[in-house]
Design brief:
Helix content: 10-25%
Largest sheet: 8 strands, antiparallel
Number of helices: 7
Order of helices and strands: HEEEEHEEHHHEEEEEEEEHH
Oligomer: single chain
Distance between the termini: 43 Å
Number of strands: 14
Length: 269
Amino acid sequence: MRTDVTTVAAGAARAELGWRDAAGRLHATAVIPLVIDDAVVAALSFARTATARRLDRATAATLVFSDSRMAWKGWSACAVSARVTVTPDRSGEWTWTGALDQEVRKYPPSRLLIDTAIQRREHWWYVPRWIVRLEPTGPLRQVARRAGPDDGVLFTVGAEGMTVDTVAVDDWDAERVRVLLLAGDGGGRRQGPAVLFTHDFSIPDQERSTELVVSGVVDASELAVVDRTGERHLAPPRLLHRLRAHYRLERACSRALAAYDASPSAAAT
């Protein structure tokens, strides 16, 4: 049975997005996939402006659905190459497209911030978004489902362009990380610059989340690590952590919105 990317996106709670910029650097992050007018999008808060700016410079991207946690009917493990378009939605028009209902269902923290009109007025800084449109440029490809955050998604740039595999990882902290394809054909077959990515979130509240990006060069089944960014382990649940996270989010959104409003690009829109 043929599966459409919008069907998978509608059923997924999370997706992994990897992309290459004009300088050839690879990046990766986790997104909440939403569907607006039959298009797959991610609605990034202004706290993630730096990520949105990097995505705006993407020359190639791959959207991966490898995490079945909290997924709904229609989800399947797959990947698709995509063209990325990033547009600012300062006024929050995305909330009138049906995407708001999707986000509060998939991401419980949003239910506490923008589920009602009163909440949206109170948390005005969380309403504006960067709308990242992900337009498929190829067919859906099957990938092996990751069993959890101990497995990773490997994005590689080689002779055949940008490729993606889901992999088992023996030691995330090693200087040379061994990766084995979850598809079951033994060691890795990729060579070239690569990013190994994993993420985690607390279930069912999703109030805590982490991302880890390991950059380097892959040769067959081994990644020679050049850089690590982020964290793999979730912090223990604490009320103080929740309050601080809320404050950091509000401050980051407010500062990014103030900078955007003062920019020439905002005046031109």
